[in-house]
Amino acid sequence: MRLLVANANTTEAITEACATAARAAAAPGTEIIPATPRFGPAVISSRAENVIAGHALLELLAEHAGQVDACLLAVSHDTALEAARQMMPCPVIGMTEAACLVGCMAGGRFGLVTFGGIETYRELVARHGLSSRLAGLAGVNATPPEAVADPDGVGAKVLAAVADLAAQGADSVVLAGAALAGFDRRLQPSAPVALLDGMACGVRMAEMMVALRLPKPRTGSFAAPAGRASIGLSLALEGILRGQT
């Protein structure tokens, strides 16, 4: 199985952290293929940057269409997830959606911790239909680059937030941030509840979806696009929109 781990921002260190976490979770025989967009924000931290990153991510996925068995979006905003699922001929997994779904199976309610602001993640959980299972959200005073440069310092802040969420009734906590990939293994011995890494959960879900061999919808909003005209797009992305996969 060939699994594309597609970052949506242009920070190579985050791509590599996600790929490392993915390889640690992958079953024997699953090849992890990391990829970074050719343009876009260094780190997504606003709605505008998320939309820009969506275009970059779709272009990146289009370049690998037909060459991989599944795609895992290495971006905690699940950037362009629905569009990617419509566009790609293989399963596409969002890392935060995957972790939240595992949280629903790990207990009654889950919490979510991320960097900085939390409202876009509240909206994301709602889009996934899981608001009733959310115990709470926490934003730590740190940035993704700090998580790469000072994992111990950021880890201490994350653990404090996890403890607060557990006190609010969370039975598990999603670590929402591509730069937090692998922090579950680092922090779990000191955490009061299960820590859910989107890369680990996403890899296992991708393997499951490939094994199930579910057919792609031929009707409805997730049917593959075809016959769509466009200008100024990469040749690979333009070809997918025309139905040339």
UniProtKB/TrEMBL annotation:
Q: Output the InterPro entries linked to this UniProt entry.
A: Asp/Glu/hydantoin_racemase, Hydantoin_racemase-like, Iso_Racemase_Enz_sf
Q: What Gene3D superfamilies does UniProt report for this protein, alphabetically?
A: 3.40.50.12500
One Pfam match: Asp_Glu_race
Concerning its family, UniProt says: Belongs to the HyuE racemase family.
Name this protein carries in UniProt:
Hydantoin racemase
